[in-house]
């Protein structure tokens, strides 16, 4: 993607300086005498609690030390541009997630056709694997056609290895689409229906993040980010819902949002991404209400920090970020793509028939603190 881009992939964290030092130079030790017209409310100190006043709104910024707010700030020196395709390693299906353990029949997706956008790689690929393992045929949709074809073959091979002697192999196909283009989305949905006969489930994982501080975020890149993350989710959902309504068939749609749609994770600045994922989350709720009468459910999964090819590369280049990220996660660990397999199967299947408009956070507890 971004073929026309001049900038190549770049992950950089400019050496850090204390945010406090940049934004709030240490103030003069002397307070300005109070006056009715200029005195800020925070200078109203409680005489009995002076020792702790500096840590309240009575204190000036930085008065109780440089630590103030330091774990809750974005750091504008963290800058990450989404890399070119060839700079990201391939993803592979995870091993050992198939097999024959008994589970609830309502989790089965036998006879269903699922579509996964962004399914060539990363979270999308592993969630597609969860659908295949649960009995569905799957269409992988991606801008990277070559990678999608490779991943489709891998999914079938993986299924064969984990289910020796199985009579019917799943049908897994690869389809090109730029999810931000209405024409491309409509053509792609028509191609999938022609190939598979129908669509029952949709998972929208096509999306990406970049990190720039808001002041210097290039406008064209911001538009691209929103068009893939928000428009792409909307366009695919509407296309699949239209098909389900025409078929008068129930279905389940799962949007991949992010914990960043509910909270502002730090330190990397990413205001447009956060806003895009908030839109995705609320779009799920809104469409859930709009299509509930037709038995079409729409839910959102909001992952926390998951170790994919992209996040791995970011952390390889910025080891400091790993410590900061994991120190803010109650479970203390990042998630793996396979940690989404159960969540997506639950929401796609009849196990969640009475769940719609929900946001399922899979984030190690990040958004609880
Ligand atoms: N990795 C994480 O930690 C994390 C956390 C929270 C949310 N998410 C979200 O999960 C989703 C998947 O993330 P990932 O880490 O697997 O990313 P990834 O880059 O590994 O995979 C994204 C896939 O989407 C495809 N894609 C990008 N733009 C597209 C377009 N316009 N049309 C069609 N396909 C397109 C890419 O080719 C790629 O195959 C994204 O929406 C991301 O925002 C990821």
Automatic annotation (TrEMBL):
Which PROSITE patterns does the record cross-reference, listed alphabetically? ADH_SHORT (PS00061)
The segment annotated Disordered runs over 24-72
Write down the EC number: 1.1.1.138
Q: Indicate whether Protein biosynthesis appears among the record's keywords.
A: no
Name of the top EC class for this enzyme: oxidoreductase
Q: What Pfam families does the entry give?
A: adh_short_C2
The annotated regions of Basic and acidic residues compositional bias extend over: 42-54
| Record-level GO BP terms | mannitol metabolic process
For this UniProt entry, the molecular function terms from Gene Ontology, in alphabetical order, are: mannitol 2-dehydrogenase (NADP+) activity; oxidoreductase activity, acting on NAD(P)H, oxygen as acceptor
Protein keywords: NADP, Oxidoreductase
- What PANTHER family does the record point to? BENZIL REDUCTASE (PTHR43008), DEHYDROGENASE ARBD, PUTATIVE-RELATED (PTHR43008:SF14)
Q: What name does UniProt use for this protein?
A: NADP-dependent mannitol dehydrogenase
Source organism (scientific name): Rhizodiscina lignyota
